[in-house]
Write a structure and sequence with these properties.
The protein has a three-stranded mixed beta sheet with strand order 1-2-3. By secondary structure, the protein is an alpha+beta fold. It is globular and about 40 Å long. It is built from four helices and three strands, in the order H-H-E-E-H-E-H.
Length: 103
């Protein structure tokens, strides 16, 4: 039963993150950009979101983290992990994100 709860909570997190827009390119979500690398439920019950910013000096990193925390707050405790390696690449932009950029 707990596996079902974990799956539905992480699924809810992924759905919520689809609505978190990038502050610099607000036509794209953080999922479209591919900067959300993982969402898991940690052993302490917190949702742990792994983000890879588009580059190390990205001025929007703090705003993105705050938006992710706000979007997921209704789901319980949330923790952000930043992963720098492998470095973000435009190859991580989803097909939907590429379509949005073309339009």
């Amino acid at each position: 039963m707990s596996d079902v709860l974990v799956a539905s909570r992480t699924d809810a997190a992924w759905r919520a993150l689809a609505d978190v827009l990038d502050p610099e390119v607000p036509v794209l979500s953080v999922l479209d950009l591919g900067i959300v690398r993982d969402v898991v439920e940690a052993g302490d019950g917190a949702l742990e979101v792994t983000l890879t910013p588009t580059y190390s000096g990205c001025p929007a990193t703090e705003a993105i983290e705050a938006a992710v925390l706000a979007a997921l707050q209704p789901l319980g405790p949330v923790r952000i992990k930043t992963r720098w390696a492998p470095a973000w690449t435009t190859d991580w932009i989803s097909d939907e994100g590429q379509r949005k950029l073309r339009e």
